[in-house]
From TrEMBL:
Species of the source: Sinorhizobium meliloti (strain SM11)
Name of the protein: AAA+ ATPase domain-containing protein
Keywords from the named record: Plasmid
């Protein structure tokens, strides 16, 4: 086999479908060479790839990846399709479901270690959004009863989600799968939709593959990245025609015969595992259930999906407690279901720049190399929560180091959250050069609960029914998700019937602040009231320290460098603070 020479369109070099399968095979061969995680099989490192493996008993046979992971062997079957809509009238989806029915019962592989996927070259808002989300729901819940209850709930699941599951169910049942909730749920948990764009005018999948190819080649062969990509496509097509199989050593030997000089092995698996663990822990701290009900805020999620099509920087903005971080978690978990990804927040991120973050995760390569590695198998979004709460310049520098590198990697986007007024007073601390490279941002505002979401809560959390009635005195406040979550901690939520009741509860609990801080805050507020109601000019001297008033993130007044403060009151009801 000679070094690839490009001439003419893909179709001129063979059938377009065959060439796309070759690109898909080349993509995963690069992942195997680099030791990258297999896209669609989080935690799995590829040991061997089978091509056109129907004779080995695999129905989704275009590619079969044999992987190893910390939990043991893992198999991912992939069927390549140029176009698939997943609609009720889509014959391609029906054919894929027939293949799923044929291979699902393979007795030689444990169900939870045997994943089934379709790789599509043409995506849509529905594929990237509700279809991926409902598959993530299936993987997230503990049993089929919870999954189907959530799917049928008003204001929780979208019609597109329900249509997808209905079509999937009808198709697999038509091909011999038992028509019961448990069986369908288990199949949905194993199913993956892998989105590629090799047929687009500017394919990001190819760009990411070429970046990985650069890392695979030694320094003296860096100029041959395009040639390596072409040769890998040829190898994949050749192996497909023969129903062949390659492991890493065999592939390296083939490339050596083509006079490629390869770099040494990079083992980034431990670093990816640490990143996955850290991101999972960060997301677990974000509450999203109210009264045991998870509201996905589907309208906002759909807006994010639409924004991702044309923007690399998306900001979620909203007042405190509306559920920005909950939506943020929904999108992050979708990405993490495919690959590891960075989830950054002001509490967990180390101070001191990229070098400190790399040290904590055990990353032995540059930031750009590691981000490219993640992007090559699906981590195309980096998540930054609570921009307005980053008060430490050293932690900000860590975010900006990453942001500058992200901006140089095609197709990688950034999703952030902050309060509605963030940046209005010139307090946006994100690096201007990185923002300029990322392009025009999209700002999506998150508001209070909609009528449909309120109805869903009333139906599924009866204890909140009275609080959420439209004529309730505190209706406008109780539609705030955070306030609702706090009210659930009251012994008898039904006793909260007026705004005065809410105010009294907040006075006693300070929204869940540590007990040692509540009395200090109460004394300060009480003194302020006395000053406000008194006559003439008065001054209050406040000293803060380790028992100072906290903002809930562990950054009290002393955390902002304030050790003391004078408050002066003047009769015209103006209060001035001097630090």
């Amino acid at each position: 086999m000679n070094e690839a020479r490009y001439s003419g369109a893909p179709a001129a070099r063979g059938g377009a479908g065959t060439y796309i399968e070759g690109e898909l095979g080349a993509y995963y061969m690069l992942a195997m060479l680099a030791g990258n995680e297999a896209r669609g099989a989080p935690g799995g490192t590829i040991n061997r790839i089978q091509f056109q493996a129907a004779d080995s008993g695999y129905a989704l046979d275009d590619l079969v990846l044999h992987c190893s992971s910390s939990d043991g062997p893992l198999v991912l079957e992939i069927q390549s399709k140029r176009t698939i809509t997943f609609s009720g009238k889509d014959p391609v989806f029906l054919a894929v479901c027939q293949q799923i029915a044929e291979t699902a019962g393979n007795p030689d592989i444990a169900e939870d270690r045997h994943l089934l996927a379709v790789a599509t070259q043409r995506t849509s808002a529905k594929i990237s959004g509700p279809y991926q989300d409902v598959l993530e729901w299936a993987r997230a819940v503990a049993n089929s009863a919870d999954f189907f209850a959530r799917l049928s709930a008003t204001g929780i699941a979208s019609e597109a989600m329900r249509d997808f599951v209905t079509t999937f169910r009808a198709n697999v049942v038509a091909n011999g799968i038992a028509d019961d909730d448990q069986t369908i749920w288990k199949l949905l948990r194993r199913f993956r939709i892998l989105e590629f764009d090799f047929e687009s005018g500017a394919p990001q999948a190819r760009d990411h593959a070429l970046l990985v190819a650069r890392h695979v080649l030694s320094a003296q062969d860096q100029h041959r990245t395009e040639a390596l990509w072409g040769n890998l496509i040829e190898i994949a097509i050749s192996q497909g025609k023969a129903g062949g199989s390659l492991d890493k050593a065999q592939l390296q030997a083939m490339l050596t015969r083509l006079h490629y000089s390869l770099s040494g092995d990079r083992n980034l698996a431990p670093a990816r595992a640490k990143l996955a663990e850290a991101s999972t822990h960060a997301l677990a701290d974000i509450g999203r259930d109210v009264g045991g009900v998870h509201l996905p805020r589907q309208v906002v999620v759909d807006a994010i999906d639409e924004a991702m099509d044309g923007h690399r920087l998306i900001h979620l903005r909203g007042n405190a407690g509306v559920g920005k971080s909950s939506v943020f978690r929904t999108i992050a978990e979708r990405v993490i279901s495919v690959s590891s990804a960075f989830v950054l927040d002001p509490v967990r991120i180390p101070a001191g720049g990229w070098s400190e973050l790399a040290l904590r995760l055990g990353i032995s390569v540059t930031a750009r190399e590691f981000l490219t590695d993640l992007a090559s198998f699906g981590a195309t979004v980096v998540f930054i929560d609570s921009l307005d709460m980053f008060d430490d310049p050293a932690r900000r520098s860590t975010v900006n180091d990453l942001l500058r590198e992200i901006a140089q990697i095609p197709g990688v986007a950034v999703l952030t959250t902050a309060r509605l007024d963030y940046g209005r007073d010139g307090d946006d601390w994100l690096a201007n050069d990185a923002l300029a490279s990322l392009g025009t941002p999209k700002i999506i505002e998150v508001g209070d609960l909609s009528d449909d979401e309120v109805q869903a809560l009333q139906e599924q959390a009866p204890q909140l029914k009275a609080l959420l009635k439209s004529h309730h005195p505190a209706a406008s406040i109780s539609r705030n998700l955070y306030r609702l979550s706090r009210l659930l901690k009251v012994g008898d939520p039904s006793s909260i019937r007026t705004e005065a009741d809410l105010a009294l509860d907040w006075w006693r609990t300070a929204d869940g602040a540590p007990r040692r801080e509540i009395s200090s805050a109460q004394r300060l507020l009480s003194d302020l009231v006395d000053v406000a109601l008194g006559a003439g000019r008065r001054r209050i001297r406040v000293k803060t320290g380790h028992t100072g008033i906290s903002n809930g993130r562990g950054t009290g007044a002393s955390g902002f460098g304030i050790s003391s403060m004078s408050m002066e009151y003047f009769p015209k009801r103006r209060i001035f603070a001097r630090t």
